[in-house]
Amino acid sequence: MPIKVLIVGYGNVGRMALQALRQAKDMELAGLASGSLSQTDKPPAELEGVSIKAAPEDFKGEADVAILCVPSRSVPEFAKRCLALGMNTVDSFDIHTDILDTKKRLDAAAKAAGRTAVLSAGWDPGSDSVVRALMMAMLPRGLSYTNFGPGMSMGHTVAVKAIEGVKNALSMTMPQGDGIHKRMVYVELEPGASLEDVAARIKADPYFVHDETHVIEVEDVAEVQDVGHGVHLVRQGSSGATHNQYVEFNMRINNPALTSQIMISCARACLRQEPGCYTMIEIPPVDYLPGDRDGWVKKLV
Amino acid sequence: MPIKVLIVGYGNVGRMALQALRQAKDMELAGLASGSLSQTDKPPAELEGVSIKAAPEDFKGEADVAILCVPSRSVPEFAKRCLALGMNTVDSFDIHTDILDTKKRLDAAAKAAGRTAVLSAGWDPGSDSVVRALMMAMLPRGLSYTNFGPGMSMGHTVAVKAIEGVKNALSMTMPQGDGIHKRMVYVELEPGASLEDVAARIKADPYFVHDETHVIEVEDVAEVQDVGHGVHLVRQGSSGATHNQYVEFNMRINNPALTSQIMISCARACLRQEPGCYTMIEIPPVDYLPGDRDGWVKKLV
């Protein structure tokens, strides 16, 4: 029986989750929950034949897993609603400081419903978290660094857009090594706004005040925007009493494509865990992969 | 209560497992099972105060986990004996083609004893296997390459030592990229042996016949030997329908130090799994780390 998947939300990640799901032979689409798309007469061409309704509640009994492609702030509410409907859930909640509290609340909701929630299933938090845990197991003492980019920071971009005088913006994260980042901020200005004033406001914002920040005016942000991203995770330290051990993980990726693929892989994993809420470091990696364990043990171990 | 660990075998890996265990605040040494050391009057200085007996059976009821630092060929027998004694086991069995069969046999033995066996817990198989599984979850379609070295290949070195005319040998694995390896073989010859003849025999051996192999005569193999090793895992492919995704994992490490550290980390994990036999891709990564999950979720996710 294929896994029946409901996609909730249809932004960048939702669109690519649909693509990833269509590549997964062990899954089928139950439908798309989207308030805005459920009201339009002309959904995008790729959604032809897809059942589009306003809310997860409209799919009660029709989905095994709900992939929550909604803003992080909305994740806890949607997760609780889907769990109560008897669906397992996967999200890519990325507010690092709230993960543990959110996990505790979703854990209670998941156990009450006898279902599983996979929390923060993207690449960071997500697959990077798994790599960091593995590196700690290999080199328990030492120093780790997570270097992001070059790539667009969603959080920083939203912060810039809220600043007076900014019409549109893009904040790029540029790795300077050892976990230090530079911010390259591209702005379209409102008529009459001064670049100097806007740059001063950006540099004084809590999101930017601690980092080297450069503000550059552009005519059209869309002309410089790209969803490519990367990370370089490094750990140097000791295994047992032996120093000079070095491990690193590096990637260059399309950001929403990887995020949504990881969510789809986690849709398998959530059906294989006991009820409760899990982050990716709490799940056996083989559970992300289709088919039976023995085949993967033979192929990967 | 600290985890009571028995070390079985005292070669390179056993010695470094003892060092790693002494760095682990949540563990204590139950003793060392070593046939040869149990018969000597002068064990090495670092073993002062350590209970040394001939066999695991001499430690019945005294250990939670047995770390099997014995040759791969002896692992299944020692694992079954230790499981029957009520100990959980960790090994770094590295005969890739026999892993699945060995897992099935140890799974039955572990379940019968109500204990857990962690199989093939080194760096390859082991942590590399976890990275490969994670990369598959991130990029389900594409090509993966495991590039080893530069570093000593135990298997190839043993094969050379068995060849006529060879007194001592070291076979180094040199990565050529894309999973292709070159073999650099350093040999001490028996008196009267010809380098030309020995080189021809090595190159005709099944271990070497498919790889570019160079044979170099040295006066003393000990002068060129080093336990440094490395790996470069690469996967290029697609997430969903999006191509050009690239991930890589790279390390430079002291080989027995990393192997033994991973075994010690797995000693924690085996106490946290249901009875049965597991490879590392089947274990939640957080289970390798000391202390409670919440702290690691907060720190790593």
TrEMBL record, chains A, B:
Residues 122-181 form the Meso-diaminopimelate D-dehydrogenase C-terminal domain. Substrate binds at T173, R183, H229, N255. It comes from Gehongia tenuis. It catalyses: meso-2,6-diaminopimelate + NADP(+) + H2O = (S)-2-amino-6-oxoheptanedioate + NH4(+) + NADPH + H(+). It is an enzyme of class 1 (oxidoreductase). Gene3D superfamilies: Dihydrodipicolinate Reductase, domain 2, NAD(P)-binding Rossmann-like Domain. Belongs to the diaminopimelate dehydrogenase family. Homodimer. Pathway: Amino-acid biosynthesis; L-lysine biosynthesis via DAP pathway; DL-2,6-diaminopimelate from (S)-tetrahydrodipicolinate: step 1/1. NADP(+) binds at residues 10-13, 69-72, 92-94, 121-125. Its EC number is 1.4.1.16. Residues 3-90 form the Gfo/Idh/MocA-like oxidoreductase N-terminal domain. The keyword Iron does not apply. GO terms for biological process: diaminopimelate biosynthetic process; lysine biosynthetic process via diaminopimelate. This is Meso-diaminopimelate D-dehydrogenase. Pfam families: DAPDH_C, GFO_IDH_MocA. It comes from the Bacteria. The keyword Methyltransferase does not apply. Keywords: Amino-acid biosynthesis, Diaminopimelate biosynthesis, Lysine biosynthesis, NADP, Nucleotide-binding, Oxidoreductase. One of its GO terms (molecular function) is nucleotide binding.
